[in-house]
Amino acid sequence: MAKFLLILLIFWLFTRYVLPILLRFVVGTLVKKQAQKFGQQFGQEPFAEAPRPRPTQSAPGEVHVDFVPPQPKAKDKPQEFKGGEYVDFEEVK
Fold first, then answer.
1. Rounded to an integer, what distance in angstroms lies between the CA atom of residue 93 and that of residue 89?
2. Who wins on pLDDT, 13 or 61?
3. CB-CB neighbours of 35 under 10 Å
4. CA separation (Å) from 85 to 28, 55, 78, 89?
5. Which one of 22, 27, 44, 84 has the fewest CB atoms closer than 10 angstroms to its CB?
6. Residues 6+ positions from 47 with CB-CB distance below 8 Å
7. What is the pTM of this model?
8. How far apart are CA 20 and CA 69, in angstroms?
9. Cβ(7)–Cβ(18) under 8 Å?
């Protein structure tokens, strides 16, 4: 009985403390390998920082807008909703 409990304790300690570290290492290496394959396939470096756009030099207080959405034409405007029919409410008991 003591031998069984000792084996059970060792198994519990292994699964509680050692196995998560091993799994984290194995899964991490697999993810890195897959990311490298993906990067090679599409010509990108995995885990590299994305290039940041350089801020343009502007005077203090000046506003810089990167994108201005196109304005809708007058004929493309949806007509305003003027309301619907009035429906009398009756409470049903």
1. 13
2. 13
3. 14
4. 63, 54, 20, 12
5. 84
6. 32, 35
7. 0.42
8. 50
9. no
